[in-house]
Write a structure and sequence with these properties.
- The structure is a single chain.
- By secondary structure, the chain is of the alpha+beta class.
- The chain contains 4 helices and 5 strands.
- Helix 3 packs across helix 4.
- The protein is elongated and about 120 Å long.
- The N and C termini lie far apart (94 Å).
Length: 171
């Protein structure tokens, strides 16, 4: 009887030593963890398929309208257009400026050599240095002025913006 117990004890010690060596055998925990993770993923997918849990990777039409960029850190205006607008219209007082939306509102002022006072609103709507990225609205105390005046101011701002960009490229 003692011989059988000794053999059984030796066999148990051998199995315990083999199990402690690691590896991916019958006694290792790696296979068990993989099976648990696979089972949890399958249960999660089943809940998503039944509609009980929202799919985190699901995309809808409303995702097109979601602004995922942080508006407190993202400025989507062209810096050359912004600076050029401030330089060209520097004779006007700045009433409001919002670099995040791209709007600069200037108060009434008389241009050098001019006779009447004007105010302007500049809208830089795109990060590209292009004419379509800039809109200028000008009015006098008597009302709106011709579109040609606004175009001339837009042209002056675009010209100055290109000069600033060329200057920065030479650095």
């Amino acid at each position: 009887m003692r011989g059988k117990l000794a053999k059984l004890a030796g066999l148990c010690v051998g199995v315990a030593l083999l199990a402690g060596c690691g590896g991916t055998g019958l006694f290792s925990g790696e296979g068990r963890e993989d099976r648990r993770a696979a089972r949890a993923a399958a249960q999660q997918q089943a809940l998503i398929d039944e509609g009980l849990v929202l799919d985190p990777n699901r995309e809808t039409i409303f995702d097109l309208f979601a602004n995922s960029a942080d508006p407190n850190t993202t400025v989507a205006v062209n810096r050359y257009l912004w600076t050029a607008a401030l330089e060209v219209l520097d004779f006007m007082p700045v009433e409001a400026a919002d670099p995040f939306s791209g709007i600069i509102q200037f108060g009434f002022a008389t241009p050098p050599g001019g006779g009447s006072a004007y105010r302007a609103t500049v809208y830089v709507q795109d990060p590209a240095l292009e004419a379509r990225s800039l809109r200028v609205s000008v009015e006098s105390r008597a009302g709106a002025v011709s579109r040609d005046v606004a175009r001339q101011i837009e042209d002056a701002i675009l010209t100055r913006a290109r000069q600033l960009r060329i200057r920065d490229a030479d650095l």
